[in-house]
Amino acid sequence: MSNEQHASIPLDDLDYAIIRVLSHDPELANKAVAAAVGAAESTCAYRIRRLRDSAVIRPRRLELDEARLGYPLRAVVMVFLANHSREVVDRFMASMVAAPNVLQVMNLTGRYDFMVTVAVADGDELRDFVLDHVTAHPAVRGTETHIVFDRRDGEWIPSAPTPGVPAVRR
Fold first, then answer.
1. Low-confidence ranges of the chain (pLDDT < 50)
2. Least crowded by CB within 10 Å, which of 16, 42, 45, 76?
3. From 3.90.180.10, 3.20.20.140, 2.60.40.1180, 3.30.70.920, which CATH number describes the 73-147 domain?
4. How far apart are alpha carbons 31 and 43 in whole angstroms?
5. Where are the domains of the chain?
6. What is the CATH code for 13-53?
7. Which residues contact 155 (CB under 8 A, 6 or more apart)?
């Protein structure tokens, strides 16, 4: 995670309603969003612009189907580092993000230091990735590789807090 501060902006019921509608179709026109939430189109346009400008909502990235592109095997490589200095952690993160086949890199607390998710063609390519890009890094003490059988994305959308009731985070 970057060192930038993540300041939240105040959101009301209309903002949350807009977020819920856009979560199902991020490319929905302002007119359709306005109709769905029962607000004026100009109000929705302003609110959506404010949500985007404050990075509460961000433009969607192109979603790829790795299997249809010839990379049907998804794996998670758990990484243990020998050294945890900021320089080593940052260097390892940068090298993983730049490596081929990498879908996501996370720096963790707990037993493992990093989780690297990759999409590869087969077991041979997975082995080569681990040997050529992960264990070849001088700071890596060890790895544990897991093959993903199935993956599904959640649909979490925050709900508007009820006035006077403490927010419950799930």
1. 1-4, 165-170
2. 42
3. 3.30.70.920
4. 10
5. 13-53, 73-147
6. 1.10.10
7. 23
